[in-house]
Design brief:
elongated, single chain, 7 strands, 31% helix, Nucleoside triphosphate pyrophosphatase, Maf protein, ITPase-like_fam, EC 3.6.1.9
């Protein structure tokens, strides 16, 4: 029997993705202070954050498989997480519109039964629509972008503001299902173990 699958995230979108893929996770929020970490580049930062979140939660379980994730958006050399306020979200959208961003999601999967941790980062290019200020104001006013890395939710209203994606769509939502499958297989698990 496989270990309990634990999602070290408060993200409803990540939980929903797992459930749609047939995995019913136990949710254990890490409450890790993301501002306590810094890194030289976006990939290193999302992996460090994912690993820290997974590690914080994994320490509470003796025999679980713990997944931590973190996403950041890189546009024109600037890295963005969740916007701190509506004003920041509006300014960010005014910068992002008509641009192509790179959405990075770090994944850390800790197997407490094997004392192993695997990390991998997904990259998806996001082509933002050249939306007008009224649309930006309305979108930010909906509240949706305030809880999302990059100030948009692909699976919500924000999906209407994206022209196209190059890469994995679930990565943009916060958890690349292909990466998760690969990490599980590298640890010796089959997908059917969790269905």
């Amino acid at each position: 029997m496989p270990p309990t699958f634990v999602l070290a995230s408060a993200s409803p979108a990540r939980k929903r993705l797992l459930e749609m893929a047939g995995i019913s996770p136990l949710v254990a929020v890490s409450h890790f202070d993301e501002s306590s970490l810094a890194a030289d580049n976006t990939v290193a930062l999302v992996e460090a954050l994912a690993k820290a979140k997974a590690g914080t939660v994994a320490s509470k379980f003796a025999d679980a498989l713990v997944l931590g994730c973190d996403s950041l958006l890189l546009v024109n050399g600037q890295t963005y997480g969740k916007p701190e306020s509506p004003a920041v979200a509006i300014a960010r959208w005014q910068t992002m519109r008509g641009q192509v961003g790179e959405l990075y999601t770090g994944h850390a999967l800790i197997d407490r039964t094997q004392n192993r941790c695997l990390c991998q980062t997904g990259l998806t290019k996001v082509h933002f629509a050249d939306v007008d200020d009224d649309t930006i104001q309305a979108y930010v006013g909906s509240g949706e972008p305030l809880q999302c890395a990059g100030a948009f939710a692909l699976e919500g209203k924000g999906g209407m503001l994206i022209n196209k994606l190059d890469g994995c769509s679930s990565n943009v939502i916060g958890l690349s299902l292909p990466i998760l499958r690969s990490l599980l297989q590298r640890l010796g698990y089959s997908l059917k173990d969790f269905w």
